[in-house]
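The records we work with from here on pair a chain with its fold. These numbers are not coordinates but entries in a learned vocabulary of local backbone shapes. To see the layout at work, look at the sequence and tokens printed below:
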Amino acid sequence: MATKKAANSKFMAPVKISDDLAEVVGAKPIPRTEVTKKLWVYIKKNKLQDPKNKRDIIADAALKKVFGGKKKVNMFEMTKLVSKHLTAIK
């Protein structure tokens, strides 16, 4: 059990957010889980989900920077692209 708890604590540790991602979720260091929550709030507020396939995200100007210039990504690819904008705080 102790091993599992240690793995979760990494997810809960605050991370440094890149300037590009900060335009969407804010610049304050927060845990990865909160980054994901704020990202989905932004996506839903700005109606950026593809109406035909809700798993696809249509990038606006701010998200295009985070997505490496891509206009559309699926939610699994989004997680991978966003992680490039997060840095562990030591």
Observations:
- The domain at 2-88 is CATH 1.10.245.10 (MDM2).
- Residues 32-45 form the longest helix (14 residues).
